[in-house]
């Protein structure tokens, strides 16, 4: 394990996942006068892609947009965790970030010290839990929004009565033998749609038990535009840029259509699924959600692999409510018994603000729910504190890079004017503004946000106290945002 040469730095990046590596790359490229460190609690880079070990784990966003703008993606659009980890490893190596990366450094707390004008960060190193402490002028939180330690599993009645294994995908046992076993996967999202086709060939039978359906879109796992551009010898960097722009444009069109003509988009999505499963399959019951398209993520099914398993009789879908677990499976409200040797609770995750780090200002714990976001990047009353929260429809990376570019511009501005502290402060005219949820449930309402909305900061009813989930809006606004407005207070 690499040990820091010193425990003081200009910028501390927390997390070596997709956001942290983006932050480090842009910081190194655009702010050469700032030294920085990246602390990661796990043993390597990757974040979510390192945490998740369940069968078939893969992206549910295309890698042209989930990948970085500065590193062309050359593989299939929907990629495996191993492929993503390898890609990130190449970025780290090519960008020479290894000297700034410190793994197995678990941060417990971060306290802003007004006298020292810096963040004092404390935590533990490795399995030995050796304590460490460091000081950093800027704290750049890039820990994502997953609670990697505690996934979300509802307390179903009778769980202790079940004689088989109950497994959450987030804590997948490496030696699990599911060959010739009856498996029930509770859930209908991207995780369930990934696990089921990956396991179907080896199980006796696998069932997706969903209490409510999800929209799925089956697509060939290739990009015809990229393939065509490569055939005519367009350089990979240009292929990446063109395909990236085309995917973003298409996604914008679909999102706008989902808002303006939800019934038409819904009909098209169901028509595609019906094309895989046939007219006799009850698509209305099993694949028709109660919400409009894109009010939650639309899960991609590469090459229709989930539907292929259903057609082959190796997998099935049951839409019902759970009455209770019994010793040999799950009893449904309808009275049907789903026999199982293994039950997989693909029921989602818990959201964690700033990676679960205990944040305080001069020893006073921070209540993020009482704060207002500044452009979705900083928080009111928080000095030198950056938080990365990406897009929920568009790939997370698109916003992680926009935030990185904005922060680098802010840091260079501070450096040029010999400033060391920046704090967004509510103006007198903002005191009585209407506060809204960080993510509007009318716009986007997955379970993890509904469960944790009360823990998140608010947004206001006016600029710059708003957080847009619209990439096209932000890609114009953030690069042009003034660094000398009447909200940012420097010292």
Set down the secondary structure blueprint.
Layout: E1 8-14, H1 18-30, E2 36-39, H2 48-51, H3 63-66, H4 81-94, E3 101-102, E4 105-113, E5 118-125, E6 130-141, E7 165-167, E8 182-186, H5 190-200, E9 205-210, E10 216-219, H6 224-231, H7 236-260, H8 262-277, H9 283-286, E11 299-302, H10 305-311, E12 315-319, E13 322-326, E14 329-332, E15 337-339, E16 342-345, E17 358-361, E18 364-365, E19 373-374, E20 378-379, E21 385-387, H11 396-416, E22 422-424, E23 436-437, H12 447-452, E24 458-459, H13 471-480, E25 488-490
Helix pairs in contact: 1-11, 5-10, 6-7, 7-8, 11-13
In words, what does this structure look like?
The protein is an alpha/beta fold and 491 residues long. It folds into 2 domains: 282 residues, FAD/NAD(P)-binding domain; 187 residues, FAD/NAD(P)-binding domain (3-Layer(bba) Sandwich), CATH 3.50.50. It is 29% helix and 22% strand. Strands 1, 2, 3, 4, 5, 6, 17, 18 and 21 form a 9-stranded mixed beta sheet that branches. A 5-stranded parallel beta sheet has the order 7-16-8-9-12. Helix 5 crosses helix 10, helix 6 packs antiparallel against helix 7 and helix 7 packs across helix 8.
């Amino acid at each position: 394990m690499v040990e820091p040469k010193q425990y003081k730095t200009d910028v501390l990046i927390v997390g070596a996942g997709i956001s942290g590596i983006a932050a480090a790359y842009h910081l190194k490229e655009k702010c050469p006068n700032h030294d920085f460190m990246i602390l990661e609690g796990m043993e390597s880079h990757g974040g979510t892609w390192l945490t998740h070990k369940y069968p078939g784990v893969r992206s549910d966003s295309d890698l042209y947009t989930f990948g970085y703008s500065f590193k062309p993606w050359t593989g299939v659009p929907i990629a495996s965790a191993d492929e993503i980890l390898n890609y990130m490893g190449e970025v780290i190596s090519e960008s020479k970030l290894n000297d700034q990366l410190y793994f197995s450094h678990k941060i417990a707390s971060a306290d802003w010290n007004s006298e020292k004008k810096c963040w004092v960060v404390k935590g533990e190193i490795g399995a030995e839990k050796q304590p460490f402490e460091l000081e950093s002028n800027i704290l750049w939180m890039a820990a994502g929004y997953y609670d990697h330690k505690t996934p979300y599993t509802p307390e179903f009645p009778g769980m202790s009565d079940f004689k088989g294994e109950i497994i959450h995908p987030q804590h997948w046992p490496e030696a699990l033998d599911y060959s010739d076993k009856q498996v029930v996967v509770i859930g209908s999202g991207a995780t369930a749609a990934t696990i089921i086709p990956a396991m179907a060939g080896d199980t006796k039978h696998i069932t997706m038990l969903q209490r409510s359906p999800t929209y799925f879109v089956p697509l060939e796992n290739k990009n015809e535009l990229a393939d065509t551009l490569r055939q005519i010898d367009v350089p990979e960097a240009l292929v990446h840029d063109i395909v990236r722009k085309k995917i973003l444009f298409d996604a914008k069109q679909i999102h706008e259509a989902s808002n303006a003509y939800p019934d038409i988009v819904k009909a098209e999505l169901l028509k595609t699924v019906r094309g895989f499963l046939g007219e006799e399959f009850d698509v209305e019951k099993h694949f028709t959600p109660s919400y409009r398209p894109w009010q939650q993520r639309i899960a991609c099914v590469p090459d229709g692999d989930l539907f292929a398993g259903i057609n082959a009789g190796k997998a099935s879908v049951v839409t019902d409510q759970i009455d209770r677990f019994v010793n040999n499976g799950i009893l449904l409200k309808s009275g049907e018994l789903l026999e199982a040797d293994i039950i997989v609770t693909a029921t989602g995750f818990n959201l964690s603000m700033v990676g679960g780090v205990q944040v305080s200002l001069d020893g006073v714990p921070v209540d993020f729910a009482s704060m207002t976001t500044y452009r979705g990047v900083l928080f009111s009353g928080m000095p030198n504190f950056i938080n990365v929260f990406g897009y929920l429809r568009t790939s997370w990376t698109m916003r992680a890079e926009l935030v990185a570019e904005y922060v680098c511009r802010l840091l260079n501005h501070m450096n040029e004017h010999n400033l060391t502290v920046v704090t967004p402060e509510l103006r007198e005219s903002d005191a009585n503004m209407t506060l809204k949820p960080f993510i509007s449930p009318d716009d986007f309402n997955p379970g993890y946000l509904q469960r944790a909305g009360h823990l998140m900061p608010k947004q206001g009813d006016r600029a710059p106290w708003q957080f847009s989930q619209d990439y096209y809006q932000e890609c114009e606004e953030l690069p042009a945002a003034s660094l000398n407005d009447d909200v940012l207070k420097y010292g």
